[in-house]
Specification:
Structural class of chain B: alpha/beta
Strand content of chain A: 5-15%
Oligomer: heterotrimer
Order of helices and strands of chain B: HHEHEHEHEHEHHHHHHHH
Number of domains of chain B: 2
Helix content of chain A: 55-70%
Largest interface: A-B, 114 and 109 residues
Number of helices of chain A: 15
Chains: A alpha/beta (368), B alpha/beta (357), C alpha/beta (321)
Order of helices and strands of chain A: HHEHEHEHEHEHHHHHHHHH
Structural class of chain A: alpha/beta
């Protein structure tokens, strides 16, 4: 392997990138954009959910309960309805997300120690509905205790580790970094070789002493640099702007990210060679990188919740391991050594991809 | 005038033929246009779930009293939670660090008398953590025989079993359509520009609008085909209910298609190479999906994001399609969203036509 | 015809013996020998599908032969591919340079690919720019470069590492006559410096510029040797040329005649190939009579020496038969 040749290809690739400042900017800004969206805009918790209340009897106890609900962070009583039908209509049109029906005998039953209320939920957004239900239960229990009900038989002390403030942002942002890298890595390289194949640029390379290894190393080098830049910028934004702690070491993050970057860049290169033209390469990379990274990596949906078949499938998604590693490094302060299974999996994927890419590269007519 | 239209029709026919052939000639392209949407739908239908169906929890119970064991037995009875015993908190903490367990129950040494138990959840996945705290906490209290002074009878309308799938699957139709059609048309147009054949076409009598229609036709066809396929699976396989009419759905889809194609065309009019097109499309479609209410509720978002959501055609289609499937709202509810999609699509197509040089 | 001063000095530039290549059932190249000496310009001719391109690819090392041996610059192409590739330069027919890199940057890339470092790379790139007259466009982007400049750049890229052998695939296709002549001047200059050059071409007049030729058909070499020698060989099929106005009127009449094999019309003339073994003198008399019967009076009607094209057509017919 001659460094001269690798350098020649790397220099060429860098020149291409610098001559296309729009694309380069996109590669550097994409992570920033996604972090901003997930950091500022997206919240899975529910705040000030619009709800309605229908008191069958306008007595003091019912009104007190309604006021208690309104005072909570989770709910905002939009209106008090005067009939069950009106409540129902508001639910149908989406004006309210949930409706509380306080029966006319509520006061009496409460005094007797066993009261009931009805909660109607808009089930379209099932997750929000569940959250609202949970909040409602917690609120009602708290209210009952205040009214002097008996202590529950069990004292449960709840703690949430790694994310004491229970902000969804904490959990999601390290995962966002992983998602971004997964996608960027593949997007960056999935078109480059296909373009050269489409335009016939490879003809001249074929008769030179250039080998596959030299070609691929030279091609991927600039993107590794850009990818690491992305990681560093993302890490900085996450910690500086969004106050998510980096409890592990930055070095560990960089090391793990480099490994993952190599995996996804190789994936992009392989797609590029398999497709042979840019149009097909773009379709292939969208489908094989973005979607698995979003769905099966544990980024948003917990993998344990999925049917076994999908859980097994997720083992083949490199992003899954990177998400776990990122979350661990940021929030748990542990290093790659403790998560050696994830590291081993990434290395295994790297080896498989490298072999596949090299084998495919021999079809380009380069020397082995 | 009639003659001009006739000529136009002939040119259009020739263009349609060429575009269809170019797009679908490669069997791999055909594969990737049809199969992945299906796979995505199936995966999403099964993967997308926020509630806790299975979780491994750790248990630290040095005393192992009869009460604690009985409690544990009833909480793990239905299989949602699987308990793993650890000798002490240190081991359990290591397991949490590694992600082997999602929560730890630490029974106090004097549990028989003080009835105290610590419930520690892994906050690295905060949504799940909240769910676990809620579900596990509930289960424990229930098992302990708590008689709540106020009970809530809840009923979920439109989705009685609160299946996440019913929420996501209609949404998939929207995202699939957006990603595939806008990307395809952007790449198709830019490809001609990159290879130099665009210039050649502009020299012929082909009008700009004819050229655009030629590009739009096969992509629109593929889009409609995908929608039909996905709807069929949603209805027949996932058994998601449908409370609207085929006509309404078709109109909504066509309007949405207009806006996704418009988006793709708009992008293509600004970029010179396919590489740029891919990056830009991604840059635009990602926020469009994330801020549309697809997976994250719009109402919770800050004002700026809500403004974006308002001019985002995906938000409107997302609302309409979920309403059509689950709620059965009529034209009154949908009218504004239809109008928004139509307007956005129209503007996008016009601007791209004007920019086409 | 150029002097053969440099031919035959030192090791052969290209030495291919008995090479063959099969694609599935189809035998593309069948037991072909090619020898090109240093300083020699060798022309490889043949129609599309004759095996020219496949042979070229094998000689360049981008396709492995099924049988036979190939050595370029004395290095075995099959066993020591990398060393062999370092000895050759290749100019493709349809070569796309990198549009967003300048002419100089394209040269720098190739220099690097051949392992030329810093100082040497700069020197060679400078040389290439001068030798090929590309100084003026050195800083211009590949996009939009006229075809002539593109070809010269391609040639430059192939010469940076001072190869022993140069492969030129249809180097002048699409060029105007003046540019073609200039390119051939360059080719001669390179040959004189000792490089062995293998050229493929469709143009018959360019075939005459070569020192030696090989004509391929259906995967085999059906004619070879020096152009003069090929022309000097007596042809089975005599050629008669008719000049004059209104000769095309006679064409149909001539076609009917038994000894006429083929008639090729030209500007104000007809080239008539007679069947193998025909007596030219008698044929001319018959033709004159037939022409008179059509009412045409030819200016001249005589036997002419064959051109290279005639030789090839005859050889091809023999090969097919």
């Amino acid at each position: 392997m001659k460094l001269q040749r690798v350098r020649a290809i790397a220099v060429k690739e860098t020149r291409h990138l610098l001559r296309d400042p729009g694309s380069l900017a996109m590669m550097l800004l994409m992570p920033v954009m996604l972090l901003f969206i997930f950091g500022y805009a997206i919240r899975l918790d529910v705040l000030e959910a619009p709800v309605g209340v229908f008191q069958e009897a306008p007595d003091a106890a019912s009104s007190e309960l309604a006021a208690h609900l309104d005072a909570s962070r989770a709910f905002r009583v939009v209106a008090r309805y005067d009939s069950r039908r009106a409540l129902g209509e508001a639910l149908q049109t989406g004006q309210i997300w949930a409706g509380f029906v306080i029966p006319h005998d509520f006061a009496r039953e409460l005094a007797g120690g066993s009261a009931r209320i009805q909660l109607l939920l808009d089930g379209v957004d099932a997750n929000t509905a569940r959250l609202l239900r949970n909040y409602a239960r917690a609120m009602i229990t708290e209210y009952a205790l205040r009214q002097g009900a008996a202590e529950p038989p069990l004292v449960i002390e709840e703690r949430v580790w790694f994310n004491e403030t229970r902000e969804s942002r904490y959990a999601i942002l390290p995962g966002v970094i992983a998602l971004v890298m997964a996608v960027m890595g593949a997007l960056m390289t999935s078109l480059t070789i296909a373009r050269e194949m489409e335009f016939g640029n490879l003809v001249m390379l074929r008769t030179t002493p250039l080998s596959r290894a030299e070609f691929l190393c030279g091609k991927l080098a600039p993107y590794v640099v850009i990818g690491l830049l992305d990681v560093l910028v993302a890490a900085w934004l996450t910690t500086a702007l969004f106050d998510v702690p980096l409890r592990g070491s930055l070095l560990a993050l960089v090391g793990v990210s480099t490994l993952f970057l190599l995996v996804v860049l190789l994936q992009g290169a392989l797609i590029s060679m398999l497709a042979g033209n840019q149009m097909l390469a773009s379709q292939m990379s969208m489908v094989s990188t973005f979607l698995p990274s979003f769905l099966l990596s544990g980024f948003v949906f917990a993998v344990q919740n999925m049917p076994r078949a999908l859980e097994y499938l997720s083992y083949a998604v490199p992003a899954r391991y990177y998400v776990t590693l990122c979350k661990a490094i940021f929030l748990k302060g542990v290093g790659p050594l403790l998560l050696w299974t994830e590291m081993a999996a990434l290395c295994a994927v790297l080896v498989v991809l490298a072999v596949a890419t090299f084998r495919r590269a021999s079809r380009l007519g380069l020397l082995p | 005038m009639i003659a001009r239209l006739g000529e136009s029709a002939t040119r259009l026919r020739a263009l349609f033929r060429k575009e269809f052939r170019q797009l679908l000639r490669d069997p791999r392209m055909r594969f990737f246009v049809i199969v992945p949407p299906l796979i995505q739908l199936l995966i999403f239908g099964y993967a997308a779930a926020y509630d806790v169906r299975r979780a491994d929890i750790g248990v630290v119970d040095p005393v192992r009293s009869a009460e604690s064991r009985a409690l544990l037995a009833s909480v793990t009875a239905d299989g949602t939670f699987t308990a793993f015993a650890f000798a002490d908190m240190r081991e359990a903490a290591r397991a949490m660090d590694r992600g082997a367990v999602r929560a730890v129950l630490h029974f106090s040494p004097d549990f028989e008398h003080d009835r105290r138990v610590q419930l520690i959840a892994d906050g690295a996945d905060s949504n799940t953590a909240l769910m676990i705290v809620g579900q596990l906490g509930q289960a424990l209290q229930h098992a302990a025989g708590a008689a709540a002074p106020i009970t809530i009878e809840d009923r979920a309308w439109f989705n009685p079993n609160l299946e996440d799938r019913w929420f996501f699957v209609p949404g998939i139709i929207a995202t699939l359509l957006l990603i595939s059609t806008s990307m395809l048309i952007a790449m198709a147009v830019v490809r001609e520009r990159e290879l130099g054949t665009l210039e050649r076409m502009m020299v012929t009598p082909v009008a700009r609008i004819e050229f655009l229609l030629g590009k739009i036709a096969p992509v629109a066809f593929i889009g409609l085909f995908d929608v039909a396929l996905v709807c069929a699976i949603a209805l027949l396989w996932f058994e998601v209910p449908f409370h609207s009419s085929v006509w309404a759905l078709t109109v909504a889809t066509l309007l949405f298609l207009a806006s996704t194609l418009g988006t793709g065309l708009l992008i293509s009019s600004f970029v010179a190479t396919q590489q740029q097109a891919l990056l830009w499309m991604f840059f635009i479609t990602m926020p469009m999906i994330l801020l549309s209410g697809f997976a994250f509720p719009v109402a919770n978002m800050p004002a700026a994001a809500q403004w974006f959501a308002a001019v985002n055609p995906v938000t409107h289609f997302m609302f309409v399609i979920r309403d059509m499937f689950l709620k059965g709202g009529g034209i009154a509810v949908h009218a504004t969203h239809f109008a928004a999609m139509a307007a956005l699509g129209f503007v996008a197509v016009v601007v791209s036509a004007l920019r086409l040089r | 015809m150029r002097a053969e001063a440099n031919a035959g000095s030192g090791a052969a530039a290209i030495s291919a013996r008995g090479i063959s290549r099969r694609f599935g059932q189809f035998l593309a190249v069948d037991d072909v020998d090619i020898a090109v000496a240093r300083g020699e310009v060798f022309g490889l001719l043949g129609a599309n599908g004759a095996g020219k391109t496949t042979t070229m690819r094998m000689l360049c090392g981008t396709l492995a032969p099924d049988g036979g041996s190939i050595a370029v610059g004395g290095v075995d192409m099959v066993r020591h591919a990398r060393r062999a590739r370092a000895r050759i330069g290749y100019v493709a027919q349809r070569w796309a340079l990198y549009g967003d890199l300048t002419v100089r940057e394209n040269l720098e890339l190739q220099a690097g690919l051949y392992g030329l470092g810093g100082q040497r790379s700069r020197a060679r790139c400078q040389w290439a720019l001068d030798f090929l007259g590309l100084r003026a466009v050195a800083g211009a982007n590949g996009d939009g470069l006229p075809l002539g400049f593109q070809r010269r750049l391609a040639l430059g890229c192939a010469l940076l590492h001072e190869p022993d052998v140069l492969f030129l695939d249809e180097p002048t296709s699409g060029m105007d006559p003046l540019a073609r002549q200039q390119l051939w001047d360059l080719i001669y200059e390179l040959a004189e410096s000792g490089i062995g050059i293998l050229v493929t071409t469709h143009y018959m007049d360019e075939a005459l510029f070569c020192d030696r030729l090989a004509l391929m058909h259906a995967g085999r070499v059906v004619a070879g040797g020096e152009p003069e020698a090929l022309l000097a060989e007596p042809l089975d099929t005599p050629i008669v040329e008719l000049r004059g106005a209104r000769c095309d009127a006679c064409r149909e009449a001539f076609t009917g005649l038994g000894f006429v094999r083929e008639i090729v019309p030209g500007a104000g003339l007809l080239r008539i190939r007679l069947r193998a073994g025909s007596d030219a003198r008698a044929a001319i008399e018959t033709l004159r009579a037939t022409a008179a019967a059509c009412g045409a009076l030819p200016q001249s009607l005589q036997e002419v020496p064959p051109t290279l094209e005639d030789v090839f057509v005859a050889r091809l017919e023999q090969a097919v038969a």
